[in-house]
Amino acid sequence: MNIEPPDPSLATRIIVTGGTFDKHYDAIKGELTFKNSHLPAILEQSRVTIPIAIEINQLIDSLHMLDEHRDRVLTSCRNAPEKCIVVIHGTDTMAQTAQVVGQAGLDKTIVFTGAMIPYSVQGSDALFNLGFALATAQSMAPNTYVAMNGRVFTWDQVRKNKTDGVFEAPQLNVT
Amino acid sequence: MNIEPPDPSLATRIIVTGGTFDKHYDAIKGELTFKNSHLPAILEQSRVTIPIAIEINQLIDSLHMLDEHRDRVLTSCRNAPEKCIVVIHGTDTMAQTAQVVGQAGLDKTIVFTGAMIPYSVQGSDALFNLGFALATAQSMAPNTYVAMNGRVFTWDQVRKNKTDGVFEAPQLNVT
Amino acid sequence: MNIEPPDPSLATRIIVTGGTFDKHYDAIKGELTFKNSHLPAILEQSRVTIPIAIEINQLIDSLHMLDEHRDRVLTSCRNAPEKCIVVIHGTDTMAQTAQVVGQAGLDKTIVFTGAMIPYSVQGSDALFNLGFALATAQSMAPNTYVAMNGRVFTWDQVRKNKTDGVFEAPQLNVT
Amino acid sequence: MNIEPPDPSLATRIIVTGGTFDKHYDAIKGELTFKNSHLPAILEQSRVTIPIAIEINQLIDSLHMLDEHRDRVLTSCRNAPEKCIVVIHGTDTMAQTAQVVGQAGLDKTIVFTGAMIPYSVQGSDALFNLGFALATAQSMAPNTYVAMNGRVFTWDQVRKNKTDGVFEAPQLNVT
């Protein structure tokens, strides 16, 4: 009996755009900023054995994202050879970028996630969210999703509640 | 526009059985042992908003599990009102207990997970695995699975490679 | 043979003024800010058995300190019944406040310390610095000191090198 | 005005012997064990700028120490060119080894410390104790001490209370 390698269809691309998830404390400046992505260290910690490609798309705060920044995410999703994609994104405008990508209707399972507390800070939700997003990317039908707070939202049914710091689905008024 | 509450079908039960995931350092004894489950703290850290029921089934090392311990897990899975179940289990005999539960053929999505490094120790994979397992429980068809190393295995196609400390699918020889 | 209680002369007051040491990540605002002091939790973690009084004097960034804020620290040092005092302070103007307190020439051992990385962030120097400062407060002759980077500086022979993020003693030119 | 380098008399040797302080979680064996010392990483985290020599004397559990192991610590203390020495030691027999070294009456300040919870486990006292011990080694008169629980004990007036997990001074009965 030999060992079967992981199914190649599970190969996943993680597209890193910055956001709280990846912030790093700069001891000289005394503030949280971007330096390098924590993704390679996080994946090692997660003991993942499926093939993962990490792509540093940009490292910015999502409040500073312009249309061109969101287009860059869409282009990466379009060009990715993988069928499973996780996008690490700031939470403040995650829903907007997910909308840009979702409207393109790519035949891939694209899952946006991020963190409310940086990976490098005590009590971070980053590792949980990454695990949640990776499983979602492997198991859901092709579409674009936001995976936060232990829930999966489709791109056109999600917004961030900035008061409570949670993602929620707006309810359509049915008449 | 009102806020839609999470879909009640996402309600998930987490059945805790102990294992490395939940070990705690006892400063007096100088060893890793079981005291209370870390699950309530972990879920708070994960910022999960779906309804979760936590059930402390047992708190033991999976190497010490006898048939009666595995049966207790099966009974809990059978009795759970939820359709989505995550079982936190020691890695050493996770595949065996998954087999006991899987053979029962319950109409629920039951996902076993655990950790190679305890939640309370630097570099733990516990948070990642919990996130991965929760998403799997929500999105996969009813069956029993093992979710470790960023992969989902069905209960009859998984074993732990104790040399490398990873889960893998044994390959059937086809003649 | 009975147990001798700790020498009452070791009783120590920790005066908290804020600074990087005590910053806390606010997930809603998405920034490091002040909420409560981490000192009670840190002392529990440190397993200290000597009597410690914690005084929250203020919780501000030391770059925002005015003369009145430094005077408030001096007043607390003067009024403290203890002979051993540790002041938790932001690093940016720690040397200035130490100078204000040092010039008062109180008959107490007063030790300023802080952190370059907050207690709540990975890789923090806060716990090390607190231990270093507490021992200095117990063992050095009455005077005012800055204890950072594993070194003890007297209040009139210390400055922060903001380029390298370390404390150093300016060298007097001898002619 | 130039920068004065640290006083060379502050040069400190850290003699590592193992103990809880330096234990590491082995994910394959599923237990806390010794691999490499964490001291180099800890000193970097502590941002120490004084000259420190790290000597890996042995890496064992102090319950397994025999006379020859304690003699090896004494020999290292005797041979050290530095006047300030910190010995990282398991807590269970720290008092015994301190007695062996203390009776030798070396003209150095030798400070034993350790941890009740390993550096690599949440809630560790290791960083605090190291800072406390380093300051004690720099500031106290030559002798051998145990520095734990935020207190300094001389080598002939200390024991570990194994029930409470704290160090204390036995009280001499005066008649």
Task: Provide structural commentary.
Four copies of one chain form a homotetramer. With 175 residues, chain A is α/β, with parallel strands linked by helices. Chain A has four helices and eleven strands, in the order ββββαβαβαβαββββ. Chain A has helices at 39-46, 67-79, 94-103, 126-139, and strands at residues 2-4, 12-18, 24-26, 31-33, 52-60, 84-88, 109-113, 143-148, 151-154, 159-161, 166-171. In chain A, strands 5-2-6-7-8-9 form a six-stranded mixed beta sheet, with helices on both faces. The radius of gyration of chain A is 16 Å and the shape is globular. Chain A starts with a strand and ends with a strand. The relative contact order of chain A is 0.17. The model of chain A has no long low-confidence stretch (mean pLDDT 93). Chains in contact: A-B, A-C, B-D, C-D. Chains A and B meet through β1, α1, α4 and β11 of A and β1, α1, α4 and β11 of B.
